[in-house]
Specification:
Blueprint lengths: L1 H9 L2 H20 L10 H29 L5 H25 L21 H28 L7 H28 L4 H10 L3 H15 L4 H23 L6 H22 L1
Helix pairs in contact: 2-5, 2-6, 2-7, 2-8, 3-4, 3-6, 3-9, 3-10, 4-9, 5-6, 5-8, 5-9, 6-7, 6-10
């Protein structure tokens, strides 16, 4: 792990963000590739995976984004937390706007419960776009943190950025599977199910590069940008991930998955950051 951290320290931060988010995208593709090995997926396993995803995102929002964002903000007391509060609200508002505009369908939901503007798009496209919404703030978070490290902000560390990318990658693996298997169940071939599953994370390298570039170009926005990514991820967890796990009798499994994901992400961030 030390050699990985040293490598990321030695390269351009935008390139580092790109490589890190390629890794997270790759793990999504690896998860989606399980559709070639399994014909069906147990509903309890799906809910546990989604719970794990939520736990990682919530832990990353605090340990990797909000905490360093507050630490590097100027001032004391209430003044010090203002950038975090503003950025958090803007991030949640950004995903709220996308949620209302972008047509999508949550995993485990009926087609009649699709959200966003009305569209004739097929269920497969809507399911993929739902997970794409998850991945926009994840890629952005990784890019912003790498940009903060390169800009020399106190509280941003290369170890923390690597830990965040690793945590996001871990939760992307079950996400890829969680997209591909329902598509397979609805009649798509294994190849098409895989392609749609991995495509749901293609936005991560794009968001990662944009996040790193924005922080390096406009350095004073870093505390706001970190909190923006955190607000976006928390909105996704509360509005998208948690409801997806509450549609059947496996809510306890989803809850334990959430706790496991939180512990793993917290451990990674503290241990490597």
């Amino acid at each position: 792990m030390d050699s990985v951290i040293a490598y990321f320290e030695s390269i351009n931060p935008v390139l580092a963000a790109f490589y890190a988010t390629l890794f997270t995208w790759g793990l999504t593709a690896a998860g989606a590739a399980l559709v070639f090995l399994f014909k069906t997926m147990n509903r309890a396993v799906l809910d546990g995976m989604l719970g794990f995803t939520g736990g990682v995102m919530v832990a990353a929002s605090f340990w990797s984004l909000l905490a360093p964002g507050i630490e590097m903000s100027p001032g004391e007391g209430f003044v010090k937390v203002i950038p975090a509060a503003v950025g958090f609200l803007l991030g949640a508002g950004f995903i709220f706007g996308l949620d209302k505009i972008l047509p999508h369908l949550h995993i485990n939901f009926k087609e009649s419960e699709a959200e966003g503007v009305n569209t004739p798009w097929h269920r497969t496209t809507l399911l993929t776009l739902a997970i794409t919404l998850h991945n926009i703030p994840e890629g952005l978070a990784v890019g912003v943190l790498f940009g903060g490290v390169a800009a020399g902000f106190e509280g941003a560390s290369i170890g923390g950025a690597v830990a965040l990318a690793l945590g996001i990658g871990l939760q992307n693996f079950p996400e890829g599977f969680a997209v591909a298997m329902p598509l397979r169940r609805h009649g798509l071939s294994r190849k098409k199910s895989f392609l749609f599953g991995q495509a749901s994370a293609i936005v991560e390298p794009i968001a990662g590069v944009l996040g790193a570039w924005a922080v390096l170009t406009f350095q004073p926005i870093l505390p706001y940008a970190l909190s923006f990514a955190a607000g976006a991820m928390i909105f996704v967890v509360v509005e998208e991930v948690i409801p997806e796990t509450q549609q059947d009798k496996y809510t306890d499994i989803a809850t334990m998955g959430f706790i496991g994901g939180f512990i793993i992400m917290m451990t990674l961030d503290v241990g490597l950051g």
